Amino acid sequence: MEAAWEALRGVYDPELYLDVVSLGLVYGVRTEGDGLVVDMTMTTPGCPASEVLPEMARAAIDDAVDGAVEVDVRVVWDPPWSPAMIDEDAARALGFRAR
């Protein structure tokens, strides 16, 4: 499971240039049957990266575990994402919070 989280830390939003974990886009990683399920969201339903980010996440985890398990990335909208979900360092990098 930690390998999956670490792999997701290497997946960067192409518009914000921050990783999906720091942005708060990943809600969870869990085992389901013989595979891994990732619940993640986008910043908005119309996010231009909505097609590419889930595939990037799946590929990153697949590479990290050498294809040993099936990876299912599910885009969810509940709860809706908000800037409050961004970790402190990423929020400061985006200018959302003062140092």
Verbal overview:
The protein is α+β, with helices and mostly antiparallel strands and 99 residues long. The protein has helices spanning 2-8, 52-64, 88-93; strands spanning 26-32, 35-40, 71-75. The chain has a single domain, classed as 2-Layer Sandwich (GMP Synthetase, Chain A, domain 3). The protein is globular and about 40 Å long. It starts with a helix and ends in a 6-residue tail after the last helix.
Summing up helix and strand content along with how strands pair, one would put the structural category as alpha+beta
Q: If you compute it from the alpha carbons, what radius of gyration comes out, rounded to the nearest whole angstrom?
A: 13 Å
What is the CATH class? Alpha Beta
- Quaternary structure classification: single chain
What is the first-to-last residue Cα distance? 32 Å
CATH architecture: 2-Layer Sandwich
